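Repro:
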Amino acid sequence: MDSYSTTSSSTSDPTLTYGYLRSCPPTLEVGRTRGVRSGSRVSTLGKTRVGSWNIGTLTGKRIELVDTFLKSNVDIVCVQETRWKGEGAVDIKDYRLWYSGSRIARNGVGIFLGKLHKDNVVDVGRFSDRIMSVSLIIKEETFTVISAYAPHAGLSEAEKKSFWELLDEVVRGCPADHRLIIGGDLNGHIGVEAEGYEGAHGGFGFGPRNEEGRSILVFAIAHELVIANSFFKKRDSQLATFHSGGRCTQIDFLLLRKGELMTCKDCKVLPAFTCSSQHRLLIMDIVTRGRVGRRARVVQHRILWKNLHGAKAETFRATVADRLSVEGDNVAPTNVDQIWNRMTSTIREVAKETLGVTLGTSRAHKSSRESWWLSDDVQTKVALKQMRFRELITFGEGTSAERTRVEERYKEAKREAKKAVAIAKDKAYEDLYRKLDSKEGANDIYRIAKARERRGRDLVNVKYIKDEAGQSIVREDLIRKRWEENFSSLFGRDRPERNGELNDEVREYQNNWFCKRINHEEVRTAL
C-alpha cells in the first residue's frame, strides 16, 4: 500500500523521470475537455463496464467479490494483490478468473470476465506476479486487457524500474489494431491539474503529485495513452481510490489509447461497494460497435444413466420389456429400421421416466455448485457478518467507545460466520468422502478430476482462431475460409501423390496411414 505523499511539483520534463521509458512520441495535442461527445451514438452501441480493484487478498472473498461485481454490473475487472500462489484459471459463479502469482503468497494479479465475455478469450499472457494480460473478442473487436500492480513506496528503485520496463514491453507487444485497456494499482499520485502532461492528464485529478505519479504520466505519454480517471469531473468520493487512517489518495487508474477516449463515457469510483477496508472499486464505461447480446442456448436435457442400478435398474428393465411386448402385439414392423426406431424411442422414454433427466446445462448451475454446502443457518450468519462490515466501513463521526463497539460487533459476527461455514463444510465433505470410498464412487472421482482439469484451462471453449500471421480472426466468413484452407493443406491438394508424382519406391510401401508396410519376416519374428 502506498501512503499519502505531500511531494508535488508544478511542471517537470517528462523525459527525465526515472529513465524507465526507452522512447517518447512527439508532442501530443491537449486532451479534450469534459462533456465533448461529438459523433457519439450511444443509442446504437453496446456498453461494456471495465473495473480495477486492489482487493487486498482473494482468499475468503471470492463469492463476496463476485456478488459485488454482479450488483455493480461490471463485465471485466482487473484485480491486484490477490496473494494466490502459482497461476491458473477458476470459475466463480457467473465469472471466470485468470490469475498470476508467485511461489509465495505475495502480490499477485488477476482478471475477472463475466458470462458474456469469458468464452471469447483468445490469448492469456502471464508475465510476472505484477503484470498479466487477457485478449478477448467483443463484437468483432479485439480487446487486450492488462492488470498491473506497481511496487509501492518504500521498495527499491531497481524493483520499480524493472516493473515499468516489463510493462513497457508488454504494451509495445500489443498490436495496434487491438483496443488496449490497462487497469491497476499503480501506486502513484498524478495530481489535480495536468501541468505539462495535457496529452495524458485530463485536468480532473485528486491530491498533489509525486515522483511515482510522474512516472505514470510519462509512461502514458510515451505510449499515447490517457488516464480515464482524470477526464471526468467528479466528487472527491468518486475520485479517491484508497482510504486509510482518515486520509484519501488516488493510486488506482484505468488507461486506454488516446484515440479511443471518445468511446469512454464515464469513469468513477463506486464508494458504496467495498470488500476491503482501504481500496475502492474503480469502473469505466466504454462503448463497442454493437450490443453484446446473449446467445440463444438450446438446452438439451440429458438422461441420468448414472442412476441405472439397484431397484431403478430392475424397474427400467421390466418396463421396457412390457412396452415392447405390447407394441409388438399392436404394430407389426415391416423392416429392420422400424424395429430399431421403435426400440430406441421406447428405451429413451422409459429412461426419462425411470432415471430422470438433468434440469439444464451444467453452466446454468455453477452458482449452486459453488456454494452447494451452504445451509440456511450459514447464509444468515454470513449476511449478518456482511452487514456488520458495512456498518464498520460507513462509521462516521463518533466517540472511540462507539467505534470500539461497532468493531466488536463485526468481529463477533465474523467469528460466528467462520465457525458456521467450517461446520457446514466438514459435514458436507464427510458425506462426499463416504460416497467416494464406495465402489460406485470410482467413476465420480474420475469425473471430478476431469472437470477440475478442464476448468483450470486458460481457454476452455475455443471460438476464434488465428491466421498465419498470428492475428485473431473474428468474422465468421473468414473463420470458415481459414478452416477450408487448413483442411485443404491437410488432405493433400498439394501432396505429390495426388498429382501422380509418387515414385515407385514410395508407392511400394504406401498405405492409408503413410507408414512403411510390415513384411513377413517382422510378423514371423513377432510371433
